[in-house]
Amino acid sequence: MKLSPVANSLLHHQAVWLITVLGAAAGYPDAAAMFAGLVLLSMVWRLGFMTVHGCLWIAGVTLIGGILDSLLGWIGHIDFRYSRLPPWVAPPWLLLIWAAFAVVVAVMARLFHRFFCLSVLLMPIAVSLTYYLGYRLGAVDMKTPLETAVTIYLIWLILTPVLIIGRLGFERRFPVAEGTT
Q: What is the mean pLDDT of each run of 10 residues along the chain (181 residues)?
């Protein structure tokens, strides 16, 4: 059975998220990151993102996510457990989640744009809940979970339209044959 690019990207992203968060929570973030990296590589390969432009998109979104998560750590909202890096620096396993998310955004950008207002309202809720779930599973520490969730929600109210519009602009500038809706 062949899955659609949307289903394929969502399933791969969820697998990367689950592997990395559970691995970090169990104290094995490096092993989880290596395994999740293979899942991510499979995702990128299956969906046709093994191009210069596909990799540039993934790298750009991952960089933005790493900076945002590191800022959340630096201001004291999140403390990344089991990292060899300073506790406020986004660990490699979290960057893998961002890379997988970049592929989901690329695949679903037109769908997100079609339902723009709904996407801008619901995606921040979903993202806040995933951070909270990571906290409840023990992958990260949050000193004030409610305040952190609200902060993440507000960040994502801004980031969601930037990612959707940014991806559509990226596609216009660099037409590629990646699996998109």
A: 88 96 93 94 89 92 96 92 80 95 94 95 96 94 94 97 94 68 43
Compute the distance between CA of residue 118 and CA of residue 110 in angstroms, rounded to an integer: 13
Largest CA distance in the chain: 46
Rounded distance between C-alpha atoms, residue 108 and residue 90, angstroms: 25
CA angle 42, 30, 125 (to 5 degrees): 70
DSSP state of 2: P
What are the Cα distances from residue 53, in Å, to 37, 71, 171, 172?
19, 27, 9, 12
Which two structure tokens, joined as six digits, stand for 113? Answer: 């744009």
Q: What is the distance between the alpha carbons of residues 31 and 24, in angstroms, rounded to a whole number?
A: 9
